[in-house]
Structure formats: structure tokens, C-alpha cells
């Protein structure tokens, strides 16, 4: 047996807006923090350029190993610095498949650019070929990262609305 109470539509709308505004702020903050900020983006791009240019200069095997170890170590430092600075922590289930798809898609684009530019720069000497490959790969990385992050973050924003609708229908 339920008691029916009159519902003031205007008050209900105000209550909904009061709830929705903080939720939108959470999504906005997630979009801002999805890429780690400009410093992380440009730091990663600069590190990638130095690594690709160095490896493109055809060093001996121990030099390639040194470049790989340095690259992985410095990339790890960037990730740790970014994660310590991050103000927003999401539960692991809130990390949607679009984030992994954006990461994979960007990796495929950058990898494809490296392979294609390596093929196109074969006639050049290794120093110039490495610089062209590094520049092309970093340009593709920077141009694809923004749209990929917005697409991935948009899935979190749109993913929150159906959950609220499902809860209201019960």
C-alpha cells in the first residue's frame, strides 16, 4: 500500500538540475584529466621523438638496448609523475572499452606511420631517415591523441546517463 503525494514539477526539475550539475562537473574533470594534461602529452611526444630519432640513426645493438631501456624508464617516470598529480581517481570498472580502443588505435596509427615512413625514407642516409620517421610519427601521435581522448571520455559521459535512467525506472 503506497501513499500518493502530489509532485511539484518545478521542484522536481530543480532537484534534477541540482543533481545533474555536479555529475556534469565530474565528467568535465574526467575529460580534462583523460590526457594527463599538456605537459604529459608534449613530454611523451618529445620522448618519443628522441627515441625514434636515436634508433633511426642505426646505432649498434647495445645502443638500441640503451635507447629502449632509457625510453621505458623515462616513460615510467612520466607516468608516475602524472598519476601522482592526478586529482581524479575512477573505479577500474569505469574505464570503458573506448579508452582501450583509443589507445590501440593511436598505437596502430603511429606504428603504421613508422613503418610507412621507414619504407619511404629508404633512399636517405640513416640520420635523415630517422629524423623524418620520428617527426612523422610524433605528428601523427599529437594529431590523433586529442580526438581519441575526446571520443574515449565521451563514452564515460554518455555511459552515466543510462544508469541514472535505469535507477529512476525502478
Helix and strand run: HHHHH
| Rg over CA atoms | 23 Å
Backbone structural class? mainly alpha
According to DSSP, the number of beta strands is 0
Average pLDDT for all residues: 77
Helix content: over 70%
Q: What about the largest sheet?
A: none
Ends distance: 17 Å
- Poorly predicted runs of 5 or more residues: 160-170
SS summary, helix count:
5
- Please indicate the percent range of residues in DSSP E strands (runs of 2 or more): under 5%
Give a quick summary of the entry.
The protein has about 170 residues and is an all-alpha fold. It has helices at about 10-35, 35-55, 60-85, 95-120, 125-170.
Q: Topology of this protein?
A:
Elements: H1 9-34, H2 37-56, H3 61-85, H4 97-120, H5 126-168
Helix pairs in contact: 1-5, 2-3, 2-5, 4-5
Amino acid at each position: 500500500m503506497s501513499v500518493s503525494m502530489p509532485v511539484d514539477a518545478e521542484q522536481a526539475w530543480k532537484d534534477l538540475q541540482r543533481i545533474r550539475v555536479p555529475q556534469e562537473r565530474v565528467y568535465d574533470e574526467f575529460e580534462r584529466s583523460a590526457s594527463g594534461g599538456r605537459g604529459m602529452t608534449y613530454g611523451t611526444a618529445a620522448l618519443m621523438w628522441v627515441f625514434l630519432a636515436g634508433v633511426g640513426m642505426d646505432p649498434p645493438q647495445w645502443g638500441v638496448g640503451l635507447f629502449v631501456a632509457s625510453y621505458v624508464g623515462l616513460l615510467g617516470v612520466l607516468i608516475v609523475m602524472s598519476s601522482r598529480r592526478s586529482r581524479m581517481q575512477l573505479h577500474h570498472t569505469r574505464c570503458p572499452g573506448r579508452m582501450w580502443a583509443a589507445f590501440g588505435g593511436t598505437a596502430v596509427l603511429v606504428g603504421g606511420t613508422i613503418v610507412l615512413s621507414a619504407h619511404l625514407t629508404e633512399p636517405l642516409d640513416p640520420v635523415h631517415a630517422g629524423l623524418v620517421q620520428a617527426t612523422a610519427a610524433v605528428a601523427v601521435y599529437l594529431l590523433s591523441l586529442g580526438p581519441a581522448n575526446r571520443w574515449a571520455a565521451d563514452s564515460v559521459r554518455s555511459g552515466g546517463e543510462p544508469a541514472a535512467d535505469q535507477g529512476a525506472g525502478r
